[in-house]
Amino acid sequence: MSDIVDISQDDELYEHYAFRVEKGQQPLRIDKYLMNFVENATRNKIQQAAKDGCIFVNGTPVKSNYKVKPNDHITVKFEYPPHEYLLVAEDIPIDIVYEDDDVLVVNKPAGMVVHPGHGNYSGTLINGLIYHFENLPNNSSDRPGLVHRIDKDTSGLLVVAKTENAMAHLSNQFAEKTSERQYVALVWGHIEEDEGTVEGHIGRHPKNRLQNTVYEGDESYKGKPAVTHYKVIERLGYVTLVSCKLETGRTHQIRVHMKHIGHTLFNDERYGGDKILKGTTFTKYKQFVENCFKVLPRQALHAKTLGFEHPSTGEWMSFTSEIPEDIQRCIEKWRGYAKHQDN
């Protein structure tokens, strides 16, 4: 690759990252700034990208010593497409709960990524879907069959569109909030009220791009509206089992909203739930929680119920999946602990 890419060739470059600099950002070298936002990037790698003419600010290539300013629009572009566009069919077993000519309902295991992205370019649900099904329609992000998604370490139900009509119909239901999605979550802390609603705009965390956060009041413009309804299923001492119903579908919505009200998901590493957030200082208790983390080595979140109107028949379809064994075993351990505390 030449040292500087001619701006006239910009159309041949692929956008890998795009950022809008926050309003309150202090002047900072762009190589240092990007290290906080680009996964697995070293400063050398970023400096090389700048030398190659692949880092643009407001459409103009910049050097690595450029100081970012509030509202700068930064893009990182290369001559090859991002890995996630290079879809390869893979013979991956898929747990199909329901199938007809229009739709599939899939029960995704924890640990499976829904679509290829940074650091996960194979073994995803989409790699498996395009192996088992031909001519799946693309969604607005060119992802075959995908109407919605759930996080890698969240288990549970997803609907997949098999036709263009189904894609349009189902996507509209999710946009209009007429579909139904209910999750089961184990969260830190004793939730006093039996039910409640969390409303708060969700957007990218300003300091940690791998997290999202809630923006309220004057800052709400930084996020998108999000609403989560929750009900207590069972109180288990220092943790609570809840049912969460999504009105909107923001990235990490339940994880962000529950943390926002002081009830981070149990063993949610990204949001700090993999630490002992409630309870005693006894060594025995610490050992008990460590054992729970081993039983459930992921966030305690399962997409249990999924409902939607069938795109061809108009019939309301509803599906429920069992709580997976790892979450179930963790609940049982807490149940035993809570019972022991009550005696």
CATH class type of the largest domain: Alpha Beta
Q: Give helix % range.
A: 10-25%
Can you tell me the CATH architecture of the largest domain? 2-Layer Sandwich
Beta content: 25-35%
Described by strand count, sense and barrel closure, the largest sheet is: 9 strands, mixed
Can you tell me the number of structural domains? 3
Question: What is the first-to-last residue Cα distance?
Answer: 71 Å
Q: CATH superfamily membership of the largest domain, which one?
A: Pseudouridine synthase
Here the CATH topology of the largest domain equals Pseudouridine synthase
> In terms of structural class, how would the helical and strand content be classed?
alpha+beta
Low-pLDDT ranges: 1-11
Q: Write the H/E string, N to C.
A: EEHHEEEEEEHEHEEEEEEHHEEH
What value does the average pLDDT take? Answer: 89
Helix segment tally: 7
Which structural traits does this protein have?
343 residues, alpha+beta, Structural Genomics Hypothetical 15.5 Kd Protein In mrcA-pckA Intergenic Region, Chain A, Pseudouridine synthase, 3 domains, 9-stranded mixed beta sheet, globular, disordered N terminus
